[in-house]
Amino acid sequence: MDDKQKARLFELADLILAISRHLHAAKTQTAESWTPLEAAVMRYIDHQPGSTARQAAEATQTISSNFSRALRKLEQKGLVRREADTDDARRVRLYPTEKADENLGQLRETWSRLLDQAVPDATEADEVIAVLRRVESVLLDRSHSESGRPLRA
């Protein structure tokens, strides 16, 4: 990789972080407050309802004690519920609550309104989404291969 590509990719990461800060600031006005770790855990549970705590901790690359603390906070806020696995009562499955769905709806409205000003063209938005999904997928695959553990069961 040459220096120009390093600079380009650094700028991409820097912009993603900056945009993330703007989105985080905008959400505090309309939705339940949470830490970045709680947001990562909630995002995974929302995208993978019925996952186990272990799966979610591995996918969010969180050590178990920090994950447990974030999960307890999300439960206290009424955003996550635990259910015993129907096949194995020792296993617990995690699900977003109705309150989490309402919170997500508020975020959808707030973030859509904010980003509509920046990316009003649907085709351009689709292209950006496709690139960012590919980046996330590659990073997830990389973390999976480095840990040697599956991210999903």
Written description of the protein model:
The structure is a single chain. The chain has 153 residues and is mostly helical. Helices cover 68% and strands 8% of the residues. It is built from six helices and three strands; from the N terminus they run H-H-E-H-H-E-E-H-H. Strands 1-3-2 form a three-stranded antiparallel beta sheet. Strand 2 and strand 3 form a beta hairpin. Helix 2 packs across helix 4 and helix 3 crosses helix 4. The longest helix has 26 residues. The chain starts with a helix and ends in a 6-residue tail after the last helix. 14% of the residues are buried.
Layout of helices and strands, plus pairs?
Blueprint: H1 3-27, H2 36-47, E1 51-52, H3 53-59, H4 64-76, E2 80-84, E3 92-96, H5 98-118, H6 122-147
Antiparallel strand pairs: 1-3, 2-3
Helix pairs in contact: 2-4, 3-4
Total number of β-strand segments? 3
Radius of gyration: 17 Å
Overall body shape: globular
**What is the percent of helical residues?**
55-70%
User: What about the largest sheet?
Assistant: 3 strands, antiparallel
Q: List low-confidence stretches.
A: none
Q: What do the pLDDT scores average to? A: 87
Binned strand content: 5-15%
Salient structural properties:
about 150 residues; mainly alpha
In short:
By secondary structure, the protein is mainly alpha-helical. It is 68% helix and 8% strand.
